[in-house]
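User: Fold both of these, please.

Assistant: Here is the first one.
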Amino acid sequence: MNISDTVPHQIILWVIWFAFLSGLPFFVVFLGPDPDRAVENVLPFPALLAVIPPFLASVIVRWLVLPKVAKQGPEAQLVILVVGMALAESLVFFGIFLFPADSLLFIVFAVIGMAQFVPLWALPKRDQGSGLRA
């Protein structure tokens, strides 16, 4: 039984994308640093160096891997969506636990990384004729 046999594939992708994205505020509010206290980063190197690898990995997954895997079927698309979203969402946890002084930087990059996975690519393609009607 395929995923597309039970529920429309696009709905599944949109629900998963929305669930990942809607979890971010909860992580920040309930796990984030206390705004009344001064916090320091746990790791000694600059926060920007820690942002780049997971963000770049999610960009590569979205723009290089996903278009190739999209031809293999809905199950492969779902797996790549979850992997890419998890890479982008990992930035929030890095910001909360390892770089609390710079957590806003990580949150912004996480939102950008997750926003690129909006499942518009999974919508059915319409016939794009010449635009002229006879």
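And the second sequence with its predicted structure:
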Amino acid sequence: MGEQTDRKPVVVLAVLAAVVLLLFVLGVTVGGGTAGGDGWRERLAAFGGGADLTVEDLVLVSGTCDVAGQAIRPAPACAFEVVPEGGRFSSAPARRATLLAVDSAVRLRFTVEGQTIDVDLESGETTDLTFSRSGGTLAVGCLGAFACEVRLLPAG
């Protein structure tokens, strides 16, 4: 009779090697970039494109704002909650928008996935914004003594 070898350890090792290789490929594809970098947001947003963020996705939580169409006019500042989409296992896409400072300087503060970002825009400048299905917050304030307006445009 020939000597029988136990192949179970070899099979387990091969499965573990495949899992490690899969995690490495996913990390390089999605995770890459510098430590603390936000490049992953753009790469994830590119999958499936996402839906447009509109004023219907916003709920006023503080301050005073005049909202007409896709225009937001703070007096002098206001904050919105971006309504979460779906439940825990929802496949709802990210919501994206381009925000345009229409006629004077504005300050935007948004919180996405627990990270708060401040952006100051001069008249005519834009910034892109992406919210995951878990929502977040968006605050808008005028930087000058004059009234200001931010317009939500389709992401581009």
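The beta strands are 51-52, 58-68, 71-82, 95-101, 106-112, 115-121, 126-131, 136-142, 150-154.
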